[in-house]
């Protein structure tokens, strides 16, 4: 019989890692939802949780096999690429591409989930804080630069 959790402490840490992954991914998703982006709180939280579960389970089943963990990470990141691609929209008439930041946050949520799932909750938390800082301050700086250069917003560009 396979014993996945040798102690109650291991089981508690496993559950805590999943909760932190969900929380961290959800907070990034909340930022996206507040700005009316295509993927929000639920999407980011679920992506982070699923990545955490994938890496946690493989580590429980193969505790010494870095090779198995590496394959899980590769598979997770490939799958996340498809989800991220789904939020990227190209507008031919407006010469714009939208959704790249949201796609990047989806990918980052998966990485945060992998970090938390492998027991690196501090790294996941720091990643989440940095992401929120970039999303908040970056948006402010981009708008300030646009105003100082007096460039028209990309949505106002006309076809030739």
UniProtKB/TrEMBL annotation:
Record keywords: Cell inner membrane, Cell membrane, Membrane, Transmembrane, Transmembrane helix
Subcellular location: Cell inner membrane; Cell membrane
InterPro entries hit by this protein: MgtC/SapB/SrpB/YhiD_fam, MgtC_SapB_SrpB_YhiD_N
Segments passing through the bilayer: 12-31, 43-62, 68-90, 97-115, 121-141
Membrane topology, from the record: Multi-pass membrane protein
Domain MgtC/SapB/SrpB/YhiD N-terminal as annotated: residue spans: 18-143
UniProt superkingdom: Bacteria
The keyword ATP-binding belongs to this UniProt entry's keyword annotation: no
Family: Belongs to the MgtC/SapB family.
Listed PANTHER family: MAGNESIUM TRANSPORTER YHID-RELATED, PROTEIN MGTC
Name of the molecule in the record: Protein MgtC
């Amino acid at each position: 019989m396979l014993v996945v959790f040798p102690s109650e402490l291991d089981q508690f840490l496993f559950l805590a890692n999943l909760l932190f992954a969900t929380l961290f991914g959800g907070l990034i998703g909340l930022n996206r939802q507040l700005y009316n982006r295509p993927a929000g709180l639920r999407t980011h939280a679920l992506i982070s949780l699923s990545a955490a579960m994938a890496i946690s389970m493989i580590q429980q089943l193969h505790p010494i096999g870095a090779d198995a963990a590496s394959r899980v990470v590769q598979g997770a990141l490939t799958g996340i690429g498809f989800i991220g691609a789904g939020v990227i929209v190209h507008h031919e008439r407006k010469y714009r591409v939208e959704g790249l930041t949201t796609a990047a946050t989806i990918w980052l949520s998966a990485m945060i989930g992998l970090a938390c799932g492998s027991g690196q909750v501090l790294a996941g938390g720091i990643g989440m804080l940095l992401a929120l800082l970039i999303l908040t301050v970056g948006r402010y700086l981009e708008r300030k630069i646009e105003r100082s250069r007096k460039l028209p917003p990309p949505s106002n560009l006309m076809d030739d």
